[in-house]
Write a structure and sequence with these properties.
Strand order of the largest sheet: 1-2
Order of helices and strands: HHHHHHEEHHHHHHH
Number of domains: 1
Main location: membrane
CATH class: Mainly Alpha
Distance between the termini: 35 Å
Shape: globular
Protein name: P2Y purinoceptor 12 isoform X1
Keywords: Cell membrane, G-protein coupled receptor, Membrane, Receptor, Transducer, Transmembrane, Transmembrane helix
Number of helices: 13
Organism: Austrofundulus limnaeus
Strand content: under 5%
Membrane topology: Multi-pass membrane protein
Structural class: mainly alpha
CATH superfamily: Rhodopsin 7-helix transmembrane proteins
CATH topology: Rhopdopsin 7-helix transmembrane proteins
Length: 355
């Protein structure tokens, strides 16, 4: 996995080269630490509340099971932010930087790809609910989804554990890179993990696109049918022949729009990083094709899009709120708010997409 785990060795033929190739600029040492500090405070508050609410809701649907896994991943990811802040701002001790290389960065990427996998499963579930809304659930199917969730965590933990174990060298200088701490086998395994993670992302991207293409087609058909039916049931107002639209029509449109929050969060958080990763990786593996300015640019592009991936920890609670009536009901009860609060935003006060 990338990020803090691999750093290239830049040429050091002159002081000018050192200055132009160095990554220790204001963007890395000031801007990113400030952004991640804010993200940590907001993300920890939202995800602790979301976790408390979700784990008070029985796991009676695939959607709830997947959301519980995502909130656990988000909490773990958020806990890695302070270590990144200290490391990037050059305030970390050598031992803490070693911890970032061995553990913190690995956990960050582990939770990112767990979220990506569950976004794919949620997209399949939303597609199923849209195409076959009356298909029921049973205890066996719920048990299989729980086992699948456990298998995903187990697979990625086993995949990432060697990155921790094989990052075991003692740093020989204060200016070490994370790759300096890896054994030869560790560097090889690091490449294997990168390839597997790329496959995970691209497979889930295709899955999300297919699912939401089918959802869009079905919602368009539903909207067309509703429009034709509502045109027969409208009420004339004046001689001009103006009509009143049924309020259920507006609510239904809002509900349908809310479903696309999952697609929006996926594309905002995960797609930019994986596209920026391609030229960044090339700048590391084919250094002769890139001068220091380009290397620095691709590094900053990668770090910027990595921050967007971190935003996932803050944006996910929007999915819980807008797509799950059980979550809203438990949240309002906890905060002692009326059950109809924010019904204007969710599009309905009674329907649920959690089943």
């Amino acid at each position: 996995m990338e990020g803090n785990t691999t750093f290239p060795v830049f040429p050091t033929n002159s002081s000018f080269t050192n200055r132009s190739c160095s990554r220790d600029n204001a963007f890395k040492t000031v801007v990113l630490p400030v952004l991640y500090s804010c993200l940590f405070l907001v993300g920890m508050s939202l995800n602790c509340l979301a976790a408390w609410v979700l784990f008070h809701i029985p796991s009676r649907s695939y959607f709830i099971i997947y959301l519980k896994n995502i909130v656990v991943a988000d909490v773990i990811m958020t806990l890695t932010f302070p270590f990144k802040v200290l490391s990037d701002s050059n305030m970390a001790t050598t031992n803490l930087r070693v911890f970032v290389c061995r553990v913190s960065s690995v956990l960050f990427y582990l939770t990112m790809y767990i979220s990506i996998l569950f976004f794919g499963l949620i997209s399949i579930d939303r597609c199923r609910k849209t195409l076959k809304p009356f298909k029921g659930l049973n205890a066996n199917r719920l048990t299989w989804r729980k086992l699948l969730s456990g298998a995903i965590w187990t697979f990625l933990l086993i995949l990432c554990l060697p990155n921790v174990i094989l990052t075991c060298k003692t740093p020989t200088s204060p200016d070490f890179k994370c790759s300096d701490l890896k054994t030869e086998n560790g560097l090889y395994w690091h490449e294997v993990v990168n390839d597997v993670c790329q496959v995970i992302f691209w497979v889930n991207l295709v899955t999300v696109l297919i699912c939401y293409t089918l959802i869009t087609k079905e919602l368009y058909k539903s909207y067309s049918r509703t429009k034709s039916h509502s045109s027969e049931g409208t009420v004339p107002l004046a001689p001009r022949g103006e009509t009143i639209r049924r309020p259920q029509e507006t609510k239904r449109k809002k509900m349908n729009a809310n479903v696309f929050l999952i697609l929006a969060v996926f594309f905002v958080c995960f797609v930019p990083f994986h596209f920026a990763r391609v030229p960044y990786t090339m700048s590391q593996t084919r250094p002769v094709l890139f001068d220091c300015t380009l290397k620095l640019f691709f590094f900053q592009l990668k770090e910027s899009t990595l921050f967007l991936s971190s935003l996932n920890a803050v944006l996910d609670p929007l999915i819980y709120f807008f797509l799950c009536r059980s979550f809203r009901a438990t949240l309002f009860k906890t905060l002692r708010l009326p059950s109809g609060t924010c019904s204007w935003a969710t599009g309905t006060r009674d329907s649920s997409d959690c089943a």
